[in-house]
């Protein structure tokens, strides 16, 4: 009896060894346990605030085409998995075996929450990856490698300090022209790092002539792959050299295949993308002058945290653009606002630096003149508070007012229940300021526009005699006009009384309203009763025109002029502005 048992054990061992040679391993679970970095990245992903705050998408019910229950975890036979993988249209030789099945179980069963969050993140990052891969004429399925490498965490860092979405080591990053210095680490830049990863994979494919060997070499280096090839007797496919690869790399390609399968068939496994708080639609602006995240966030009504998550390559919240230009990724709506308020952003930055260091010299290019801006001259610091009132004047906007009072646009809107970025002339704002500085902030309400600009940006930028005379002339003209109007009214009343004129009073009002005037930027406009007509200048947009007329929105301009959708306006075109 014992002899029969021994023979049976021997036969099972031989069958197991044969299956290992054909499929790449019969101990799939063991390979998953050895894949420490893959497991670690899945756990680290959950520490990101925009991942933790992810929520099920509104389309979840409509995507549930198989009518699963909310907590149902489907399972399938080996034949179904194998057939589905064969059905994936890919130039890569995707195969199914026990190790691949173990990784499918990891992603589709054990780490379901992480997968749904990665499905949501993929809607942000995969378009970037696909564009780069397509440009280099590489298989688009290589985008799934980023899931295995970093779980789509731009800040991922391995125990050997490989960093970013594509887990570049320092020396490899330098070879592929990624900048790494005290302020910038482009291994964390989604675009730059993807371009470098594509070139590296392309080079590795050129060495081995096989995409799976290139993927293995991406993980453990071409030297280890060549060593495995020699030990296998010159075999040239991943599954043939599988037993001779480093332990962690053996699970690397199976994990890649499993990710491709789960992302392709996620609905079949009752998995759906969760909505992360990172914006899907972003735009890039060019920065050619040193700037810190804080004034950008303050003027554009954003959080510094959001800027960090969109631009993780800037390791100290500063863009060191002095001898070269850098890019800044912003939500699409904020990118246009950045161009509009760029001068205000830089003036705010200079004011912050001067407040902490009176000797700060913006023209000193000997190095980054960075001073920590935390708590710099801000009325939002701790301590007793007072509330001051400010009446919005012509030419004001929320970022400008916020800068004057050293508060954020966000708080300014919150305190005064303002929902959009508009604020009408004459509106009274309540602003929290330090109690010991209330007297200073109260004076702002009595300042002229020139005085406010001097206060905010410095006398050097606004000290010309021309500006003084212009403002003095304006005040004088307004005084003269007021006196002349009073005299004219008196004479007119006497004539009206004597001659008993029959002209309606409203006609006189219309005639007076037709007097040409200018908007806040000095651009001529023509007016009629209740209506202004603005002549479009070169470079104008509906948004920039709306900014010129306090209380007027883009939708109101569109409605007044019969403009639909994204219909463009042309220089010279007359735009009707309905007065609020």
Describe the structure.
With 580 residues, the chain is an alpha+beta fold. It contains 28 helices and twelve strands. The chain has helices at 2-23, 28-34, 36-45, 49-52, 60-63, 78-87, 98-110, 112-135, 145-150, 170-175, 190-208, 211-220, 222-231, 238-241, 247-250, 252-264, 293-300, 304-310, 332-340, 342-356, 398-404, 409-415, 438-443, 449-457, 465-499, 505-513, 542-548, 554-561, and strands spanning 55-56, 274-275, 282-287, 291-292, 318-319, 326-331, 385-391, 428-434, 517-518, 524-528, 531-535, 574-578. Strands 9-10-11-12 form a four-stranded antiparallel beta sheet. A two-stranded antiparallel sheet has the order 1-2. Strands 3-6 form a two-stranded antiparallel sheet. A hairpin with a 2-residue loop joins strand 10 and strand 11. Residues 1-26, 371-378, 459-468, 474-516 and 518-522 have low confidence and may be disordered.
Topology readout:
Layout: H1 2-23, H2 28-34, H3 36-45, H4 49-52, E1 55-56, H5 60-63, H6 78-87, H7 98-110, H8 112-135, H9 145-150, H10 170-175, H11 190-208, H12 211-220, H13 222-231, H14 238-241, H15 247-250, H16 252-264, E2 274-275, E3 282-287, E4 291-292, H17 293-300, H18 304-310, E5 318-319, E6 326-331, H19 332-340, H20 342-356, E7 385-391, H21 398-404, H22 409-415, E8 428-434, H23 438-443, H24 449-457, H25 465-499, H26 505-513, E9 517-518, E10 524-528, E11 531-535, H27 542-548, H28 554-561, E12 574-578
